[in-house]
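Q: My labmate handed me this sequence with no annotations at all. I'd like to see what the chain might look like in three dimensions before we decide whether it's worth expressing. Could you predict it?
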Amino acid sequence: MTSEIKPICGLQRTKLSEAIPLSTPYSVLIFPTTFCNFKCVYCAHSLGLEEMRKRYDFVKENMEMGTYQKIIDQLKEFPEKIKMLSLTGQGEPLINKNIAKMIKIAKDSNVAERVEIISNASLLTKELADEIIDAGLDTLRISLQGLSANKYKEICGTDIDFNEFMENIRYFYKNKKHTNLYVKIIDVALNEGEEEEFYKLFSDCSDRMYIEKMLPVYDGVNITDKLDVKYDRYGRTIEKRKVCPLPFFMLGIFPNGDIEPCDGIYKPVVI
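A: Here is what I predict for the chain of 271 residues:
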């Protein structure tokens, strides 16, 4: 086995209370799109556009390259490099046809220590894999929704060719050069007893793999509405926070250029 069983998040942590106020955000999440081709049962996209508009004032759109370039130019004004620039957020980033160009612009600008994507990878082709690898992507984090076409239909309401899906992931891993490939799956996307099958399936075609726990993230999503959890997505026990830490180290940028102090679907404030 070449893959490690570790959370796909960054493992190097700073005690925030000892670091703030920051001169530069640690993380910036730029949303290339708010469209998604899946409607996963635990995600807000399962509610449909009209309900998302009503609950979150949510609009589906793609980011234009002019907006993106302006964001990159403004990020250069921070006194330090951003630790992580993620082309991710409230949609499937591979839907944006300019995703490889976005990666290359970010890498060429040298505004971040690493550039990453979180994707469901259903739109990943061999051609697109070559493009985003050549553009200099540092990490591709793939979020799986099952280990079969039937499970994908159950979890996200979409038909996929699972064999072709796996073939494209293996192609990416074989040709990835310096790019890291991490895979994760939510516990509800596994049938009983499939944990070992997941680890076996990705043991030789990923750098890191992990099973995460489903959490109540979106108001109005039935499957998570009554969840009362005292653990995080990695199963670690947590206590209720009185203050959200995200605004102290993160920015999220919607396709229209709206900037919020986190990566949530809500816009608590546009700054």
